[in-house]
Amino acid sequence: MMKRPVITKLWWALALGMGPLAAHADPVPDPVAPPSAAETVATPPRAPEFALEGTSGQTRRLRDYQGRVVILIYEDRDSNQQNNDLKRELADRARSQDLTHDVAVVPVANLSSYSFWPAAGFARDAVIDIAHQQGMEILIDWSNTMAGSYRFRRSTSYVMVLGRDGRVLFRHAGALPLRARMQFFSVIGEAVAQPG
Fold it and tell me: pLDDT digit string (tens) for 131-155?
């Protein structure tokens, strides 16, 4: 029997005073953003390496996912509802096809605002419970290290697609409108079709 879809009601379901927020463009120049159509770059840049605690208790690094297309969703308590439509659509697609060999969904919860005692313990337990319910691992950024190296802003949901070699193929800040969601799924399809 297939595990329940991995995208619905993840850590963003924590009731920590969250509400829908407006989408934001990403005004900060980003060294890991894919080049625009006007730029001519032979290969997209590689995403920075990270080392984050997972809800399994192990440290996870970007290189652990090498060989698979990575869907990275990074959110904090103020942005965890910005991409609910996308997460529902991902869950629907996960139900209809099993791509776990080719695709890794990597949700990351920024819990830096809870990195003090006793809040850290409660926040970790809540994320672990959600990870168990969903049958997947959630990574935790306790100190904004990933946010800093990826140039993620607070209160903004980030969605990225990384190729099998860790290169940035898609990056979006804020809620993905329909057109961006279509591009997102197109990029994933093209990346999965590439040989591993």
Answer: 888 778 999 999 999 999 999 999 9
Q: How confident is the model at residue 15 (pLDDT cuts 50, 70, 90)?
A: very low
45-193: CATH, from 3.10.129.10, 3.40.50.1820, 3.40.50.1360, 3.40.30.10: 3.40.30.10
Quote the pTM value.
0.78
Contact in structure between 78 and 17 (CB atoms under 8 Å): no
Under 8 Å between Cβ of 72 and 191: no
Mean pLDDT of the chain: 81
Contacts of the segment 124-131: beta carbons below 8 A, 24+ positions apart: 124/55, 126/11, 126/14, 127/11, 127/14, 127/55, 128/55, 130/9, 130/10, 130/11, 130/13, 130/14, 131/10, 131/11, 131/55
Q: Give the gyration radius of the chain's Cα atoms.
A: 16
